[in-house]
Specification:
single chain; 5-stranded antiparallel sheet; elongated
């Protein structure tokens, strides 16, 4: 799964198609993400303790990760993710690191 927490994504299908939002929770084991302001459900809560109020609470429900696409912060377009390998030199030692990059503008670390 190429989507991480705090990424900006756009919804590709469903009732919230076209909406942009920030990823609040990423669940790679279930291949789902929770996006701010997308797939909102109303839940009726009951007061459990004395003095606690019940009522109707609106919360975001997870949606499948393949129904959202990452938005590049540099070019602002919805894009697929490329994984580029860059070579770093840290204290005289060379290491390779895989980074996420935009397919459209080649911006690194999206």
């Amino acid at each position: 799964m190429n989507i991480k927490k705090n990424d900006t994504v756009i919804v590709l299908s469903g009732k919230d198609k076209g909406k942009k939002g920030k990823v609040l929770v990423a669940m790679p084991s279930e291949n789902k993400v929770v996006v701010e302001g997308v797939n909102v459900a109303t839940c009726h809560t009951k007061p459990r303790k004395q003095g606690e109020e019940g009522g109707i609470v609106r919360r975001e429900i997870p949606i499948r990760a393949d129904k959202v696409q990452l938005v590049c912060p540099k070019c602002g377009k919805a894009t697929r993710v490329a994984h580029n390998v860059i070579e770093l030199t840290i204290s005289g030692k060379k290491t390779n690191k895989s980074v996420r990059a935009c397919k459209k503008c080649n911006a690194v670390n999206i």
